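Quick one, tokens below:
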């Protein structure tokens, strides 16, 4: 047997116990993998200096990648797409500005300067830029918490709204430059679905003010206060507003349905919001709508965006409101815009760099706040229209920007006749399109806890407030993530018959254990939060196996820990392994470590754990470990007496 064991050891490879890397080397590697997993400058290594400089410029200014090859054929597609999304931008821009309770012209400004900035720095080929409904409402709610209202102090209110956009841009630029876009991913998909559906619901209900022609309304956003306000002011209901609102809303919903069912009629749904606004302007102009109680947008001045850098407000009395709005809306807008950009990029087999996108959003919002714009981001509806209209590059955003420049220079006063009921219909139709309750059912079928998080977000927003829904669901998602870390995936492995493969015995019931040996696979980092759990779970498996062995085979003599899935370990984790070894030795059981990763092995070496256990107890594979353990058990076949 000794000769066989010696021959076996000589034929097998061994674990590489090299000298642990220096702290600087490990830190450099960790930073690279954390912040630069895509290795963005890999292609520059073998390039000449001038080429390297040009490639660097292209990396930071993505427009330089496609602009040199741009031609008239591509421009024809982008020109049509740009004009198409511009026609959608006008009603949406005015409508969403009204949600934020700021002058409607600000909504048009948001689609002039920001698209030019994004076209320079954005990596997506079709993301369309503009103001958002949900963030508009959230910013308004945050500013009002400081008792600043557009009715009493419109100048201060507008300054704080624009300041919130500036702070959002600063936050986005910081995250992008520091390659911290991964933080945005902490807003889970389930939270986003529930929050967006809840926000869409309360925005729809708030449009009852415009659809019914109400003069007085609640400043609260929850369902109870909105419904109460609608019926409390029922003496203000205007039948003409209700009739126009019903016609407009029906037209918008039917046109969108036709566009989805018949792609050749998609132009109808695309132009429908503009048709509603134009017909509304004509009706109010010819029938003198104000005499019939139909309110209009009011005066819209011609002219380019005024400079507002001097209006940014950082007064300590009010600054907490813009900061709160910036953090919440920035996280939501950024995560949604990146998801939109990536989803449309996948349809063309293109790539979108998340950190570049965040930098582009940051610069866009900072520069926008200097030119009378509030928070802007990528919009799903406009991007879908842009994509379906055949856009090829971000030149479509440039075309849209020029179209909006012409509108605010020459055509803005025309839209002053736009009835508020028409804008309410446009907003309501857009929000109804976001009520995708089929996704709720999809979550329910796949993951009940995700469904629960989604429901909490939805009802938190609709019954209480947007902050309550967002933070409660975010907290639940965070707790779930912490539970995954504190209770990591561990499993007992068995041998698949007639193979050398070892798999989870629960997943593969036909997998058989090896007499006298327990193989446990750990699939997460071992650290302070889960060390005790891992120790208790391993000892329970040993206890259960020993109970079986009383009536079947001999006692357990070896426990093998497969650490191939353990990416890191801290001092508490190493202490837990030492304690596991100590408890096993008191039972006469040896411990073996299988396939530890380099970072784990280095820490074990520095902590002297390798010396405590012995290098002979470290193995490259489960098969090798079991063979060696069976030699010590006096068995010649790995399957002899398998259970």
């Amino acid at each position: 047997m000794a000769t066989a064991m010696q021959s076996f050891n000589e034929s097998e490879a061994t674990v590489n116990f090299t000298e642990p890397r220096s702290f600087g080397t490990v830190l450099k590697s960790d930073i690279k993998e954390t912040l630069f997993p895509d290795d963005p400058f890999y292609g520059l290594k073998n390039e000449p200096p001038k080429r390297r400089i040009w490639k660097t410029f292209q990396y930071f200014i993505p427009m330089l990648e496609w602009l040199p090859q741009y031609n008239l054929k591509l421009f024809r597609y982008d020109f049509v797409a740009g004009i198409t999304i511009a026609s959608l931008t006008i009603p949406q821009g005015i409508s969403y500005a009204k949600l934020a309770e700021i002058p409607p012209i600000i909504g048009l400004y948001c689609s002039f300067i920001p698209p030019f900035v994004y076209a320079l720095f954005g990596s997506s080929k079709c993301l369309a830029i503009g103001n958002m409904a949900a963030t508009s409402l959230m910013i308004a709610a945050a500013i009002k918490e400081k008792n600043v209202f557009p009715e009493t102090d419109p100048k201060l209110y507008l300054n704080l709204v624009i300041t919130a956009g500036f702070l959002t841009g600063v936050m986005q630029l910081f995250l992008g430059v520091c390659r911290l876009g991964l933080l945005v991913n902490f807003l889970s998909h389930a939270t986003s679905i529930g929050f967006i559906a809840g926000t869409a619901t309360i925005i729809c209900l708030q449009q009852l003010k415009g659809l019914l022609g109400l003069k007085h309304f609640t400043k609260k956003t929850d369902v109870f206060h909105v419904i109460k306000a609608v019926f409390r002011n029922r003496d203000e209901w205007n039948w003409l507003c209700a009739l126009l609102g019903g016609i407009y809303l029906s037209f918008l919903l039917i046109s969108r349905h036709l566009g989805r069912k018949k792609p050749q009629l998609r132009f109808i749904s695309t132009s429908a919001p503009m048709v509603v606004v134009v017909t509304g302007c004509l009706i109010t102009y010819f029938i003198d709508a104000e005499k019939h109680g139909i309110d209009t947008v009011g005066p819209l001045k011609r002219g380019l965006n005024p400079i507002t850098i001097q209006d940014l407000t950082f007064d300590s009395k009010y600054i907490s409101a813009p900061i709160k709005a910036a953090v919440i809306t920035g996280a939501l807008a950024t995560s949604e815009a990146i998801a939109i950009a990536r989803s449309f990029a996948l349809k063309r087999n293109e790539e979108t760099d998340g950190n570049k996108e965040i930098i582009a959003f940051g610069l866009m919002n900072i520069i926008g706040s200097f030119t009378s714009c509030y928070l802007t981001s990528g919009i799903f509806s406009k991007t879908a229209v842009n994509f379906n209209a055949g856009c090829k590059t971000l030149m479509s955003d440039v075309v849209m920007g020029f179209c909006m420049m012409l509108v605010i220079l020459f055509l803005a006063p025309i839209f002053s006749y736009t009835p508020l009921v028409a804008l309410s219909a446009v907003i309501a139709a857009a929000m109804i399109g976001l009520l995708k309750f089929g996704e709720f059912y999809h979550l329910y079928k796949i993951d009940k806890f995700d469904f629960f998080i989604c429901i909490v977000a939805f009802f938190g927003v609709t019954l209480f407030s947007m902050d309550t829904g967002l933070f409660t669901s975010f907290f639940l998602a965070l707790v779930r993530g912490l539970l995954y870390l504190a209770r990591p995936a561990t499993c007992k492995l068995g041998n698949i018959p007639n193979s050398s493969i070892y798999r989870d015995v629960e997943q593969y019931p036909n997998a058989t254990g090896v007499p006298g040996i327990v193989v446990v696979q750990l699939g997460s980092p071992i650290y302070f939060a889960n060390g005790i759990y891992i120790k208790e779970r391993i000892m329970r498996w040993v206890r259960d196996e020993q109970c079986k062995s009383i009536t079947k085979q001999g006692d357990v003599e070896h426990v093998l820990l497969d650490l191939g899935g353990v990416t890191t370990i801290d001092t508490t984790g190493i202490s837990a392994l030492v304690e596991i070894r100590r408890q096993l030795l008191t039972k006469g059981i040896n411990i073996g470590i299988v396939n530890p990763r380099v970072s784990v092995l280095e820490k074990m070496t520095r902590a002297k754990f390798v010396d405590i256990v012995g290098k002979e107890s470290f193995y490259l594979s489960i098969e090798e470990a079991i063979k060696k353990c069976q030699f010590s058990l006096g068995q010649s076949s790995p399957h002899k007496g398998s259970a």
